Amino acid sequence: MKDTLRWAYALNQWNVRLDVFVRHEDQQRALKTVSACGFDTIELASGTGRWDNISRPEVILLNHGSHQGFLDFLRRAQVRGVSSVFWDPQAPTEEEEGYAFRSTANPADADAIVEWSKPFVDFVAGVGADQLVVRPVGSAWMTPPLDADGIKVVADVWNRIGERTAAAGIGLALHYDCLGAVHTHAELTGLLEATDPATVGFALDTAELTVGGIDPVAFYREHADRVTHVHLKDTRYADTGEEYRMPGAESTMLKGGAGRRIERWFYELGTEGGLVDVPGFVAALREHGYPGWVVVESDHGGNPAELAMLNSWYLQRVLGVAK
User: Fold this and answer.
1) Does residue 66 form part of some domain?
2) pTM of the predicted model as reported, rounded to 2 decimal places
3) Please, is 16 exposed, middle or buried when counting C-beta atoms within 10 Å of its C-beta (0-12, 13-18, 19+)?
4) Is residue 256, in this structure, part of any structural domain at all?
5) Average pLDDT, whole number, for the chain?
6) Is residue 1 part of a domain?
């Protein structure tokens, strides 16, 4: 995409199960689709184990030999590089972290999580990407409500990792998750206030904020100086009944609509009935001279190739971004 904003595309919508995005030819097909749609830069999402061989830094390097080897693999599909890598330290992993389950809300886990960040920091720097994008805290249903002291515990972990990313010459961006224990506007602003703005940025996800009841355009205008990364997608629904607190919300809400029969929460740009003011949000980015990446994603929203083409069409035909 040829524009004053920097556009990238997230590969997470292809990687829906461990057994469907493993072969290099399948990955090349996805990369070529993204490239054909006008995106020459991608965002990766972390995973675990040998089956997630385009998601885990150690496994990527085993498959491709080096950071340069992986970049050469991308360039075979006319994708020139990586904008960012998404990492959730709360997600259960296999051999890489000894099958441990940890949380940034637990002070006893802080040292281990900081150490876990090292391969991701090294990989992001090694492939020339800009941002390590992270889920700052686990799901609300798994964590007692966080008061100011609890938010400070979470913030302290990310301040330590922010020092590590800054030393490596990359950025750290905390990604809002509509299921997260940091959920309300007050909790989110509290987390930003408790982190060091020099080393810890914010990854604004337009759909996740909207589902969580926060207006992404207003929030961006209020906190433009902290936003260092963007995930751009749409939604037709908001969580109006605190469904994010339901046990197993990852399935009961995001995959089942918590009784509302919502087939999916995340949609392509320009979806009918979309709640995100995409043109208004992009206009606000331009108004403030936003310098970071805008990563378009659909987040398991349907057929990935179809959604990539729909998103590309919207950028070109509605937003006027030249391919």
Assistant:
1) yes
2) 0.94
3) exposed
4) yes
5) 92
6) no
